[in-house]
Description:
By secondary structure, the chain is mainly α. The protein is built from nine helices and two strands; from the N terminus they run H-E-E-H-H-H-H-H-H-H-H. The chain starts with 9 loop residues before the first helix and ends with a helix.
Amino acid sequence: xxxxxxxxxxxxxxxxxxxxxxxxxxxxxxxxxxxxxxxxxxxxxxxxxxxxxxxxxxxxxxxxxxxxxxxxxxxxxxxxxxxxxxxxxxxxxxxxxxxxxxxxxxxxxxxxxxxxxxxxxxxxxxxxxxxxxxxxxxxxxxxxxxxxxxxxxxxxxxxxxxxxxxxxxxxxxxxxxxxxxxxxxxxxxxxxxxxxxxxxxxxxxxxxxxxxxxxxxxxxxxxxxxxxxxxxxxxxxxxxxxxxxxxxxxxxxxxxxxxxxxxxxxxxxxxxxxxxxx
Length: 278
């Protein structure tokens, strides 16, 4: 069978899954650290507050310090943004490796040329040179293709089905790697907006609560803080969701091109064999 099968070994797959689920926790923790100790640096406020988890600083001196007033929802939004960055880098590296060397379309045409000349070894060499997901699937199919050229106990239709089955098995090993962690990007696209909406609602509640308090000076101060909390959360959430949506669409397009290349490879192998070895 194809030599791509050992790639599904249990421990590496489990480690990848563990890292995928640890990454969000780490990003949220880092988001809190950034909010608490960078944005919430006491030196950035005229009246530093007390407390460790959520000091009530007042009078921000710069824009970064003002973001701190967005409240406790801000760390989650920063964490979501860091998740998008982390998973985008991971997907970029994985998909770049899956694309392999050179253009997929040119690789498929090269293999078609070798198969039309019945030069299977040259086609296999091209797969080794390509080193991508399409090359892995094509190589698995070519090995079965080569085996079927000397098989005498099966008719042509059975041989074509055997090649097609081998390609499908190799494809089943490649596609999960391409789709892994895409769910995080798609989820953050919606989750970022929802969390921002929660922060906005909390900020507006704080604003309207300030209007019901006695004392005009205190009301104006609390009203301003509540509105800033609402707006900063809205801005951070929209920015995070937009970034996640863009990256998701970019990677989905890349994955679709690889999937199309795999489908074209399967068609190339089956049609070539059916034509060359009737």
